[in-house]
Amino acid sequence: MIQRKPYDFMVKYQQQKDWVDGRGNFIAFAFFLGGIAGGLFLAAAYFDNLLGMFIAFLLTGLMGASYMLHLTHPMRFWRMVLKPGTSWISRGFTFIMLFGFFTAITMILMQWAPDATAAITTFKVLAGIFAFAQSIYTGFAVSYVSAIKVWNSAIVPILFVTCGLSGGLAILLAIMVGQGSAQIATLENIIRVVLIAFAIIVAVYIWNATYSSTAARDAVVRLIGGVLAPLFWIGVFLFGIAIPVVISVITYWVHDASSALLITAVVSEIIGGLALRFAVLKAGVYEPLLPSD
């Protein structure tokens, strides 16, 4: 075990602990759940899949619960909600509540008033707006932290929302496989495009961070060749990109691919999405106050 000296923060890059260690892990889970719930709702709304919307609604509830578990005094969370002008976490709670509200109305109308097409469309659009906001705001909450250079990038919100959409599409694929839907082929085509976009954005994010600052470069070194390399290469690259892409290519050429193969891709993408959140958060380091040499 590495022994740290009290003055290390002055001369060495220090990993942030607030959002990854102890109760901080709940923040990482909340970011993951928010992204995947938003992505799932958008996909389910496009395909008019009520079960997908319901699962997205449940995942959003779990996101809120994860936030509450992170708080030292959870019964005081309402104070944070009252500061949307200065806090992305506050805005996030607002997005969660509005998304849950509009999604609940949409599902009620679809289930018990299916002929109210105008109302269903209106509330579906409103829910979709806040689903997207819920998904992308987690990236803004991270990129807003200017003290951690590897986070402080305009690419982070795009990375998080694309990752959330990828995971949401994967969950919808599992739902459709279970339902025996005729729309699976169409969904698979969308997933292929999103997977390619996700891989490109991850590469651009790493490349950009390498040249943005010394602190961000140190974080990249930790990610691709240091203590976080197993999390990045196995969790993000292998499970989040490589395995889903290979299976996607197989299903493109073999149109009657087995359900087991599709579910493997689904599980792999979910693992990759969770690994990405933890990898990015764990890579965050503070710059030393003094030069190291």
Low-confidence parts lasting 5 or more residues at pLDDT below 50? Answer: 6-11
Helix content: over 70%
CATH class: Mainly Alpha
CATH superfamily assignment?
Formate dehydrogenase/DMSO reductase domain
Radius of gyration, in angstroms, nearest whole number: 20 Å
Can you tell me about this structure?
With 293 residues, this protein is mostly helical. It contains 11 helices and 2 strands.
Outline the fold blueprint:
Blueprint: H1 8-11, E1 14-15, H2 25-46, H3 50-70, H4 77-81, H5 88-112, H6 117-143, H7 155-179, H8 184-212, H9 214-225, H10 229-253, H11 259-283, E2 285-286
Helix pairs in contact: 2-3, 2-6, 2-7, 2-11, 3-5, 5-6, 6-7, 7-8, 7-11, 8-9, 8-10, 9-10, 10-11
